Amino acid sequence: MGEELKLPFEGLRVADLAWVGVGPTVSKYLADHGAEVIRVESSTYPEALRRVGPFVNDEPGIDNSGYYANFNSSKLGMSVNLKHPRGPELVKRLIARCDVVTESFTPGTMARFGLDYETLREVRPDLIMISMPLYGQTGPWASYSGYGHVLQAAAGFNHLTGWPDGPPIGTGIAYTDFLVPHIAATALIAALDYRRRTGKGQYIDFGQFEAAVHGLWTAILDWTANGHEQIRLGNRDPEAAPHGCYRCQDGRYIVIACFTEKEWEGFRAALGRPEWCDLERMRRKWSRLNEQKEIDRHIQAWLDDHTYDPARPKPVDPEGPEIPEDWQFTTEEVVAHFQSFGVPCGIVQSPEAMHKDPQLAHRGHYWKLQHPVMGLRTYDGPAFRLSRTPGRLSKAAPCLGEDNEYVYRELIGLDEEEFIELLADGAFE
Fold first, then answer.
1. What is the pTM of this model?
2. From CA 233, how far away is CA 227, in angstroms rounded?
3. Is residue 386 within 8 Å of 8, Cβ to Cβ?
């Protein structure tokens, strides 16, 4: 075997002052691929996600949040009170030993503590710093605060989510928190590459709002080019028929989406080529788009007749290309059946089903990590695999201030007496 390669960001050190979802996710990309990422927090005003469930055993606690833990695995943790007279100085001394600073506070917050980019460049000239507030550093909305649920509304997602005759609704989660970090991480890696080539750092003014707009599909283009305002379509899609969610006999749901004529032909074959599929209004997609309600009705009737109700005995699977009308599918089997005909189809999965999903198991997506408070728990792994240097989760998320002694004594260089004195004086709270 050859020598084991270093992970891509090994040797890189990051001071992570970001909050909630977007910022910590960006630095986690680096942490999972070798960087030493240090979460900088305070017990006087804990990171918001530490106060958000789910909590293990439903017991709220600073070190008991699964939400926080999943966003911050592979990182170290230090605590510091920035309102202590020496708090900002201690953070500066840490940043002098760091390559990257991440933060997502409202514009002006870092400057009030003397931790703005121009000041920090004096202690680390080649520093890369990325600021990730909702709306960037400038503009009429720059001072506004909020979270992903606010941002998805501001970025237009809620306008397109819901039913045509109903009000705008959210996505159920802070959707932009899981979209925006990919763009921010790309910008940060580009800055690291620039520093590698030139030796120069830089400041990244990143607005989550602008990044989120990139996930809005063609809504803005459609308006500027055609004067057409896209509306909420429920489960419909302007380019697909059928396109919907349908109930199987066991109470679970599947989704079916046919965008092309080839997929429609596969769909017809999967149903056994019923006569209604040959009606003139069903022969071309542009016409089928106006017949969605009728198509939905036929699909649901077929599933009612052909999916397996666990309360009834399941007949033996027949052989041969033709499927008898009384053949009963389980939900998994009906998805495999449609897929075998080239029809895009999948199961609407619950969290429990996701945890047991065989595809995710095959890919090694879930990691088991031992946390000092929460015990052995499941974490999401990286969403991609580098062929020669795949990422890994090196440790569970840190408890608040878990690595203070390492950071303050070894990195910042406090001697034992000063460390104890500052600890007693509340500088590390």
1. 0.91
2. 18
3. yes
